[in-house]
Amino acid sequence: MGINLEYLTLLQSLKKQDLLSSGAVLELGAQDISADHKDMATHNKRFNNASDSPDCIDTAALLYEVMGYPRYQAIDATGEYGAHVFDLNEDIASKYDFHEEFELVTNLGTIEHCFNPAVAFENVHKFCKKGGLMIHAFPSNGNANHGFYNMQPRLFAILAQANEYETLEFVFTVDYKPVLNEFSHKSYAAHDDRDLMCYVVFRKMNDKPFVSPFDSIFDDKNKLKGYKTALDINEFRSYIKGTWQNVKPKNIASVPVEIIRATNPIRKIIKRIYDIIGRYV
Question: Can you give the pLDDT at residue 129?
Fold first, then answer.
């Protein structure tokens, strides 16, 4: 996804609340600075009111150093910025014997590109120290063909409950504009025809093993053991924008069905000619 002004705004908000600690940071996906490098520095100087801030923030490592994390590492299939070339679809600890822990672990639009996101979330959990922060940024609506998945906000609410994370921030942006909107059912629904990116900040509260979440909308019928339940999902309740009824009509043949295909008109004409010729060959 790249580091942009809205992410810098989020970091500044966390710093203002004294939620950022010094130490080491691990990025899933070695991020570029996608915003103008001088704009990043100007925005940071304005926030910190410090003349000794750099005049140009052109790498993720420098940004995190400014924010109090002087030790930077990343995992990326490209190996860019000195990143570890690890497969995030795999259990990193067991496959690569990598057991380091970090005060901050970030997933800035990376996990939706992994075919096995469940393992990637478990990796984030393992990398993060107790008391450390995990920041997830993910496409949630629109963003057609951006990655393998768009991720629903409820996934992260239930992920937090299952693993006893403290949720510090849950915000979203509209059409990649640098404005952070606090998540609620009403605010999200008001923009759900746009490209929405969510940002979630968790604090890891214990060293318990990772727990896979179970979707709470099925709590009342769940007979599986070992899953946490009773999440109030009111703000994360399901809804549809059109009319839908999960009932088959009595006479299915009476229901008009139309398949609209995006077919090139010229190709349709050529196919029709071949169909006609084929009758006489």
Answer: 97
